[in-house]
Amino acid sequence: xxxxxxxxxxxxxxxxxxxxxxxxxxxxxxxxxxxxxxxxxxxxxxxxxxxxxxxxxxxxxxxxxxxxxxxxxxxxxxxxxxxxxxxxxxxxxxxxxxxxxxxxxxxxxxxxxxxxxxxxxxxxxxxxxxxxxxxxxxxxxxxxxxxxxxxxxxxxxxxxxxxxxxxxxxxxxxxxxxxxxxxxxxxxxxxxxxxxxxxxxxxxxxxxxxxxxxxxxxxxxxxxxxxxxxxxxxxxxxxxxxxxxxxxxxxxxxxxxxxxxxxxxxxxxxxxxxxxxxxxxxxxxxxxxxxxxxxxxxxxxxxxxxxxxxx
Length: 311
Hints:
- The structure is a single chain.
- Helix 5 (about 160-170) runs parallel beside helix 6 and helix 8 (about 250-255) packs parallel to helix 10 (about 280-290).
- Mean pLDDT is about 85; it is low at about 45-50.
- Helix content is about 30%, strand content about 30%.
- It starts with a strand and ends with a strand.
- It has helices at about 15-25, 35-45, 75-90, 105-110, 160-170, 185-195, 205-220, 250-255, 260, 280-290, and strands at about 1-10, 30-35, 60-70, 100-105, 120, 125-130, 140-145, 175-180, 200-205, 225-230, 240-245, 265-275, 290-300, 300-310.
- It folds into 2 domains: about 1-110, Alpha-Beta Plaits (2-Layer Sandwich); about 150-310, 3-Layer(aba) Sandwich (Rossmann fold), CATH 3.40.50.150.
- It is of the alpha/beta class.
């Protein structure tokens, strides 16, 4: 499938309004390129930006959105232009130049970064093997064949990597596992290989569900892992011994209220995708719903939090 990238160059003040318009019209993703933010990060000393140069024109922010090239595309593009014109009539000129469009193929997105993704060892026994590389497994290793495509989850990011290592430590034989926001399916696959009896994986993104199913099939685990499109835990039934959520802090806080009711009494909740600065927020939200933090792993400014029900 081809996708249409829509670029709108705007003032800083208009970024939020323009982003809201692009999302409301049905964008499958929105990216904001803010040159001032890049400069601030370069000068902060807290983030290595490799060879990204100092940005000269900091007044122009580029907001990009992606739409499927289908029968609804022209209607969406017309609606975007109408909405932008309405805002401009109210607040005055905020755009730099015309709205720009370009076609991006899904194959391009899926292959552009492959040169940077190689075989990765995680924990004591997990090995992540890109589908396009060869690897001969050693005794006791669990090899995960993965092709993330357009879905999040190569296992190399700190959030996924730490979550897999923690999962290896807590997995019990024949556990029921729920994977919320499964992305590429990598955590669901890891859980199954580590001994889970059954894994129920959920993602709100249809593309992620498709990619996860393909990866699960490639690993021969389609009978053990059930993947559904759904919002948070709404795609699961029953209770789990382990619930995994590698998402972001705000979504985890939203999810926490449902965790006690979906977790067995001696179950474990693994929350990941959390920047270190939000650790206290997550812990406070957990306490409000009767959950306690038992263990925290931290790396590169990210944390994975292991929780259980307060007894």
